[in-house]
Design brief:
Length: 152
Amino acid sequence: MKHIIPILIICLLIFTSCGTNSEKDIISTDIIENPNTASGKKEKDVLPKFEFEKNEHDFGKVIEGEKVSYTFVYKNVGKSDLVIFQAKASCGCTVPNYSKYPIEPGETGKIIITFNSNKRKGFQNKIITLVANTQPNTYVLRIKCLVIQPEK
């Protein structure tokens, strides 16, 4: 009898810990086309493709507490609509803002990255990972700066 209660608690924890995805994390399969088929043939020529003006930005020296932003501009040089599903920064001090709408072939899009230097010091190197309907499906952007203390 002593062992039944702990076993029930463990079972309850195991069963309730799975499937924690919320509806906002679910991506509709209507807009995803996987170019990899069972035969191994790929149709890369019809896929969307990023072409960034640059994929790294150096803010130089930033005074601690300052918020700085940079806009990365890209063009869809592929042959179908480009959709960014997620933009994730390597740190909570960096916030990516991007269009949730499809970018048509030949059109340009923007990703605004804002870095908050509050409570930061020294060299900062942040990575922003984009997840899109491209092949490969991830693309990496970088920002960096040197955070200095304000003069007193």
